[in-house]
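Hey, resending since the last one bounced:
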Amino acid sequence: MVSSTLDDSLYFIKLSGMTVTGKPLAVSSSEYSSLPTIIDSGTVITRLPTTVYDALSKAVAGAMKGTNHADACSILDTCFVGQASSLRVPAVSVAFSGGAALKLSAQNLLVDVDSSTTCLAFAPARSAAIIGNTQQQTFSIVYDVKSNRISFAAGGCR
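The structure tokens again:
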């Protein structure tokens, strides 16, 4: 966790990088910290700094070439025909300072918006980046407030 004077009730973290199919996103490392970032189990869709989001969207769409695109749904603008469970989804990893990383499965990366459409479960951020609960699902997350650390372990509740 990182300290912040913005709001004592929130858990601030430092996003340090993202990869799609093992390749880092084509953005400057400073872009990841261009906005304060919190982790919030009450927010469904993860919000990223716009430059990071745009690079993620482009990389995921490129990795899913051959999958038909679908119309945007509300704030979700990178959408595909089909359900997440039936699509070939690229490996995506989210890294944080201190070495923690989330290796996202299809259900952590995409959200089914109806019976024939799934969308990237990320959107551009306005004033703060937020790691939402879609990315937290299936992970055990430990908030060690005394030591100012958050830890992630795969294979939590499913």
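The helical segments are 50-63, 106-109, 133-136.

Sorry for the duplicate.
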